[in-house]
Design goal:
The chain is mainly β. Helices cover 8% and strands 65% of the residues.
């Protein structure tokens, strides 16, 4: 757990120590649509969730920026079996670091790595709940790609796909990974167009 804390603190300190002329801190939140891919041909359905957190937007050059984030993310999957729905609720603290190509009209393309730290893993079926945290890896590495648009007042929207690269199953031979879409809004404080 100390490793996770140190990693998150390092990102926050990195954000705080940036002295670039055009750097902004912001908040973000929105909708998640996640599932879990399995290589044993068991298909899950998408599960709706949400994400919320902080971001820093750091201009590196006229058309390039770096955007590290620290975000709580409600993920998981669900499946139906004999008219019963089982929901896998996976909660992460995600730390994406996105490289952005910026256009003069507020439009941005973004891509980069993401590290997620598992904080909760439970399945729910009718009135029963099971804890799966000991069965899953605590660190999930992935890649994110998407686009965003920011207005002159600092309000913007974000659309992103996240593809997990880590086998989240710790004790089985089945390869499983997180995959999902995020749609959200963000606000950059003291933004200048």
């Amino acid at each position: 757990m100390k490793f996770y804390f140190i990693t998150v603190m390092a990102v926050i300190l990195m954000i705080g120590n940036v002295s670039a002329q055009h750097s902004h801190i912001g908040i973000k939140g929105g909708l998640n649509l996640y599932d879990v891919y399995n290589d044993n041909n068991v298909d899950y359905d998408y599960k709706a969730g949400f994400h919320a957190g902080l971001l820093a937007h750091i201009h590196l050059a006229k058309h390039f920026a770096l955007q590290p984030e620290v975000v709580y993310s409600s993920q998981g999957a669900q499946y139906n079996f004999f008219n019963t729905t089982t929901r896998f609720n996976l909660d992460y603290i995600n730390v994406p670091v996105l490289f952005q190509l910026m256009f003069g009209n507020g439009f941005r393309l973004q891509v980069g790595p993401q590290v997620g730290f598992l904080i909760n893993a439970k399945s729910k079926n009718n009135n029963y709940s099971f804890d799966h945290r000991d069965d899953l890896t605590l660190v999930d590495v992935g890649a994110a790609a998407g686009m965003s648009y920011v207005t002159k007042i600092g309000l913007g929207f974000d659309a992103r796909y996240v593809h997990g690269l880590t086998n989240i199953n710790q004790n089985t031979i089945v390869y499983s990974s997180n995959r999902g879409f995020q749609l959200g809004l963000f606000y950059l404080f003291k933004h200048k167009s």
